[in-house]
Each structure stands twice: as C-alpha cells, then as structure tokens.
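[09:14] KT: can someone run the structure on this one? pasting the chain below
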Amino acid sequence: MLVKKKIMGGLLVAVIALSSAFTRLQDKPTLFVIGDSTVKNGQGKGADDMWGWGDFIANYFDKDKIKIENRALGGTSSRTFQTRGLWDSVLVSIKPGDFVILQFGHNDGGQLDDTARARGTIKGIGDESKEIYNPILKKKEVVHTYGWYLRKFITDAAAKGAQTIVCSPIPRNIFKEGKVIRSSDDYGLWAKEAAKAEGAYFIDLNKITSDKYDRSGDQVVAAYFPKDHTHTNGAGAKVNAASVVEGLRDLKNCPLKAYLIKK
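[09:31] RB: done, structure tokens below
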C-alpha cells in the first residue's frame, strides 16, 4: 500500500510539473514579424541564398522566454498585406503581451491599379483615399496612404494587447557619389511619423544600415545583393537583422528588449 501511495504521489508530482511547463509555454509572448521580401524571401529557406532579415532575427532572442514567428511575405505592400487577409491571419493569433515588428515600403511605391500587382499606396501619412477598380481582385477598392495602413497595423495590434515596433525600410543598393541613397524624405520619414502618431516604437532601420553601407563602401555592399538592388543574400540579411537589434537596444522603455540575449 505504501509503495502504491509513493507511485501515485510521484505521478501527481509529474502531472503538476508538466502542467506548470505547459502553462509557462502558453504564457510565453510571441514576436510577430511582418513585411515584404526584404523581411522574408520566398519560403524563408534561403533558396538561391536569398534571405530576409526576419529569418535571422530569432538568433538574438532568448527562445526560452519568447516565441518568434516570421509572417512576412514577399511581394506585399502595407496595403496588400491587409487586403489579402495576411494581417487578419496574424491578428487572430495575437494575445495580450505579444509584440509586432513591421517593415513595409519597398512595394508601396507601385501603381494603385496596374494589372500586374495593384499594390501601391498613396504617398504620405494623411487620410487621403482614392477609389479604384482593382483589376486583380476584379472589384472596386478604396486605397489609402502608406501611413494610414501603418497606423492600422498599430491600432489593430494595440486593440489585441500587443505593442508594435515600426521599422523604416532597409536601403537598396543604390549609391550616389559614394553614399547610399536613403529614404529619409519619403517612406523612412512616413514610417517614423506614423509610429509617432500612434505611440508605437520606431527603429530607423534605413539610417542604421545606410550608415554601415557608407562605411563599408559600394563594392562590399554589392556582394550583399547578387540579383538586384533590393533583395539580400544571407550575409546582407544578417547585417540588417543586426541593425534591427541595434535599434531595438537603443529604444527607451521598450519591453521587448528584456527578451534579447545578453551581449
């Protein structure tokens, strides 16, 4: 009888331990990463050595304390990530205490209603809108500004209890007079203003990486872009991931920093 009680007691302890471990797993926050192909290229498996920075960001976090999900998709803009239902699929998974890092802009400069992609947004951060006929969806659509879509990401996440970190777009491999062309007067600026308007955190990823590119020089940077001036290989994506973390560490009072692996 005594042996049986010991066995039962041992089983009870094991069940309690498993239950506690499961509870900790459930309580662990998630960092959702969203964006375009510069954040996740293809399936995120490095086909042809093409990578996005979101594929390497998890290496900087303590995965015993936080879960990382890279939900970015190549070809999307701030508009189409929402209109194609990709953002809704992220939203249903968000719980209080989670985080969202986003970076859009490379595809937002396209046309609003072209027959190839119809993914462009109106320039700026205002409330302007335009009704168009979307030849891809074959229906009318009201298109808003880049900033409007960013603000919606932020407010939607906040409504679910999550905090958002907005990144300005990584620089393209385009140099002029020895310096990389920056987006400080357009999408980089608008991303900053949209984040400020909604009280979100902001990482000037464009500036951080551009400074690195300027120091490295165009020949070194060219090796990061083997196919075009936008998409990075593994080495280039790692540079950008490091820049994101550098910017994150410099943010004041951002709770996401607590989950970074100590230097």
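[09:33] KT: thanks! Residues 30-259 form a domain with the Rossmann fold fold (CATH 3.40.50.1110).
[09:34] RB: yep, looked fine to me
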